[in-house]
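Predict the 3D structure for this chain.
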Amino acid sequence: MRRHQVPTGRLGGTLVNIELVKYPDVFLRKVSKDVAFPLDDKTRRLITWMTRAMYQHNGIGLAAVQVGYDVRMFTMDCTRYQGKPQVFINPTIVKNSEETITDFEGCLSAPGKQGEVKRHIRITLNYKDEEGEEHQKTFYNMEARCIQHEMDHLEGRLCIDYEKGEYSRDKHKSQTMVDTDFRVKSDS
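Done. Predicted structure below.
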């Protein structure tokens, strides 16, 4: 097929099947490192790649660790039509609501598996955008749940590590993890 006939994605460029790091890969257990500013070209390309991967796999959020980079960054788009991706760099939850809700969550890195996870229904997040500008914003409901899910990835936790809503360190440790072909790419 000629290049001009290759289908293009929502963000431009050709469609490529972007492989995700999948459970039980040990890479998903890495605690992510802070992103340095100003962003270099490699990190800017990673943001575009992550957003493409999130849409390609029909997700509403995706952490860098899920595409093989152990940096504190994730993308999210909880809109119905998936047209407003947001990027969160070096995020920190600074406030939680007392109210929580327990529900089942799936994960693009653990296809076919679910965890019953208790999440705060409202959170306040400090983060930086692509330009290095600091933000503090309060998120509710689905966005709050998605952010907490992605923040777990940045700490090496998965939704399948939860038991009856609560994080279970024992369950996390008991799961058999293996090395795959994914290697740390943030140093390359």
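The longest helix spans residues 41-56.
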